[in-house]
Design brief:
460 residues; alpha+beta; 8-stranded mixed beta sheet; 6-stranded mixed beta sheet
């Protein structure tokens, strides 16, 4: 992408005003997306996002600048201008580059750009037809495909030279059911760090029908009652609760600032004994996986919570420096336009031992959240508010009538301590996570869990 001599000169220029570390991140990201509304292609876009970002450290201070002009003159000007923000004595030497060797554990069979658009459009239309045929109340579908091939180079003044290619593919299938005075949405968004082979192995017709099923069930559901009650949260999409309400609070981005409810809790009990949680960026071809993170560190499997005890944070280089801790392969960014920071990859609550049927049978009354929707969280306090995409009342140990409009309200640390049953049906779902370093692909997941008491917001 860039020759080593030029990169070394740029890093050297960046350190002329006393910086103690410099890093260059270069990317060439080819992207394609197709959106279909009601069976008709609405747009088809493709292009290349190309540029580089330069980061300079001095102690705990950081300067970041970026450009899409990677000519020698432009890069040297970028380095010179960025370095002016630091006015210290000394000139750190740039070490000779050593190429980072790593095993590619994410095999790609069919690059998405090797597949004709017609096949992708046919896939989306199959999902549309399946949703429309499910029920007459389905009035609209919005289906999309996205594929990308991102080539990255990370080089730094410590002598690191790391290159990688990341190929991702994802579909987002949405169905809307309508009555005279109500609309309800069902959606599913399967994706992977993989090529188009992911879709050729996917039952798109069944997924289109599933999106419609959720919308139709919720359209005809009663309003959810409000109050404190036991809540059973099922697998896959249910993992968004841990991701948002707890995962962000375990990122060094918040920990290093003292802006997390889990600051200073390493080695302490922060969850029920039945809870273990993991962030694993090494799962082959998983949506949130990579070979190396955006600082060039090898990805890791990080055990965050083990039997209720906090074991690890998610740490990037700069925040790790502030915390006196090593990086954990958790540094990520949306593109060269963002400085990296600690982020999640594939984050999930680990399997427990309780059969799912026993979790439901042992709940006299409560809410069954089969699928979770979006929400918001404040990492400093752990307070969250999440919508339930598909929910049901539990009565006498059985799943009863569907209810709509449910929200779950609480604090991350309280939910962790109130989990009293963990099932054995772990599954993950794909999503996009937004934070200070942009929007990145992440997996969420868990087995079925029961929270013995949580506040449920509803309109009845």
């Amino acid at each position: 992408m860039l020759n080593p001599a030029l990169v070394k000169d740029v890093l050297d220029e960046a350190l002329t005003t006393g910086g103690d570390f410099a890093e260059l991140f270069v990317e060439n990201n080819r992207k394609e997306s197709i959106t279909m509304r009601n069976g008709v292609v609405e747009n088809s876009l493709s292009g290349i996002d190309y540029g580089c970002g330069l980061r300079i450290f001095n102690g705990f201070n950081c300067v970041y600048a970026y450009t899409n002009d990677t000519s020698r003159e432009s890069l040297l000007i970028l380095a010179k201008e960025a370095s002016k923000a630091l006015k210290k004595d000394g000139h750190t030497k740039v070490l000779d580059f050593q190429k980072k060797d790593f095993k590619n554990i994410h095999k790609i069979q069919i690059p998405p750009f090797d597949v004709q658009k017609k096949e992708k459009i046919d896939m989306l239309r199959l999902a549309h037809n399946s949703s429309k045929e499910y029920d007459n109340s389905i009035t609209q579908t919005v289906n999309s495909f996205a594929g990308s091939v991102q080539n990255v180079l990370i080089a730094n003044s410590d002598g690191l030279w790391a290159e990688d290619t990341r190929t991702r593919s994802r579909a987002f299938l949405q169905a809307i059911a309508s009555s005279e005075n109500e609309k309800q949405v069902g959606y599913i968004g399967p994706g992977a760090l993989a090529g188009f082979e992911f879709f050729r192995n996917l039952d798109v017709k069944s997924i289109g029908a599933e999106a419609a099923r959720i919308a139709v069930i919720m359209l005809n559901a009663e309003l959810c009652p409000a109050g404190k009650m036991p809540v059973i949260i099922d697998n896959e999409f249910g993992g968004v609760i841990f991701h948002e309400a707890c995962g962000h609070s375990l990122e060094a981005t918040a920990i290093a600032k003292g802006a997390s409810e889990f600051c200073g809790k390493m080695g302490q009990k922060i969850a029920a004994d039945c809870v273990s949680a993991i962030d694993d960026g090494t799962i082959p071809n998983a949506w949130g996986s990579m070979n190396i993170d955006d600082e060039g560190n090898t990805m890791q499997k990080n055990v965050l919570i083990e039997n209720g005890i906090l074991k690890s944070y998610l740490i990037d280089r700069l925040n790790g420096k502030k915390m006196g801790m090593s990086a954990t392969g958790s540094s990520r960014r949306e593109s060269y336009k963002y400085a990296p920071t600690s982020r999640m990859t594939n984050t999930f609550i680990a399997n427990g031992t309780t059969p799912t049927k026993d979790i439901i049978a042992n709940t006299d009354y409560g809410l069954y959240a089969k699928k979770m929707g979006g929400g918001s969280v404040e990492p400093a306090t752990g307070e969250f508010n999440f919508a339930v995409l598909e929910g049901y009342i539990i009565r006498n140990g059985k799943i009863a009538e569907p209810v709509r409009g449910a929200t779950l309200i609480g604090k991350g640390h309280e939910v962790l301590m109130n989990i009293d049953m963990v099932g054995n049906n772990l599954a993950r779902a794909q999503g996009m996570c937004g934070s200070s370093s942009g929007s990145i692909p992440t997996d969420v997941g868990q087995p079925m869990i029961r929270v013995k008491e949580i506040t449920v917001g509803g309109r009845r």
